[in-house]
Amino acid sequence: xxxxxxxxxxxxxxxxxxxxxxxxxxxxxxxxxxxxxxxxxxxxxxxxxxxxxxxxxxxxxxxxxxxxxxxxxxxxxxxxxxxxxxxxxxxxxxxxxxxxxxxxxxxxxxxxxxxxxxxxxxxxxxxxxxxxxxxxxxxxxxxxxxxxxxxxxxxxxxxxxxxxxxxxxxxxxxxxxxxxxxxxxxxxxxxxxxxxxxxxxxxxxxxxxxxxxxxxxxxxxxxxxxxxxxxxxxxxxxxxxxxxxxxxxxxxxxxxxxxxxxxxxxxxxxxxxxxxxxxxxxxxxxxxxxxxxxxxxxxxxxxxxxxxxxxxxxxxxxxxxxxxxxxxxxxxxx
Length: 334
Description:
Elements: H1 21-33, H2 37-50, H3 55-67, H4 71-85, H5 91-103, H6 106-119, H7 126-136, H8 143-167, H9 171-184, H10 189-201, H11 205-218, H12 223-235, H13 241-246, H14 256-268, H15 272-280, H16 284-287, H17 291-303, H18 307-320
């Protein structure tokens, strides 16, 4: 009986499949059309990583971020395209206008919609841009109101950008913006508290504490001062943090943002039982854009030995904020 020969394939005839940017882009668009936005973001980000100079990839990725309400990230991508491609992709102007409209920054929405019409008067989005401008039109006779309106728009842009940097602990990027804000909007006390917090984590700890005590002297009941000083002293392993924690124990704010700040403060300072109660009382829909909600809620649950709940919260955060998926679960290094 003849032994069947074992024929080895000729390696020269094997063509390896190496995915390229277009492959990732196609997969991302397919996922987007099926409204699987988290999957779409992963594929499209791979396309961008494979070919960072392709503006189409970034434009499509920005559209997905717009769809899930991450307007700041979407705008950053669109601005990158405009910086590198000039006016080759005029649709970016309309997409920016749409995002600013969603953010409530109506003057900026109108400005970008007008830019789109100027640069591409017969473009596919002409009617949408014209409709957007109609919605944004402000009575030109009310010049004083317009000035106040523009100031509020400018403040919101700063706040949105600073919020993004602080959430991502990019203190060196947040600090100069906050310094500008204190000059431009001197009456906004919350800016000074954010500046002190950023100052501390940027390494200027004594200056941050001195500043926060000055603010506390001006407003002895200041919630933000007690929050910041509790965190500062806990980071420095000093007993003074307990005094400021005690000042927060009987405070139950109405607004979800303040509820979150207190919950995160309790979590950061090791008051896990109280932190867990506060996190449970927060409406997730209203704080879902905060990385800190998912990070510190999951840490709190883990510290209270609710491991499955901690993992569930963390996974939900990773789906909502794709950049978290690149990190280890936070309690490993906590």
